[in-house]
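Go through the following before class.
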Amino acid sequence: MGRSHTVLYAAQSGGGAGGLTPIIMIALLFGVMYFMMIRPQQKRRREAEAMQKGLAAGDEVVTIGGLYGTVTGVDDDTVLLEVAPGVQTRYARPAIARVVTRAESTESTSEPVAGDADAVKE
């Protein structure tokens, strides 16, 4: 009887490490989900908010519905788009999906002047 008692005791004491394995697997699964799904989504959301805050008159944009328009006015929560000559519509800022082209700034541009290009060649 002494020998069978020892085998049962050894079998019972070996199962202690098995209780920690599921916790480690759940933690690893959460880590993978965070880096593969949650973090990239947060980054895209921050980029979209920055794009929407940077809207200015003259920007050509696309709405989430696929409508192309030119920004004619910007308010705190809304954007006024000209979708056709003389046709203006109002949209909420989050409805702007992306900026196609930015409005040209009135500051000096880096384009060379025709006379300067000749001077560089000489």
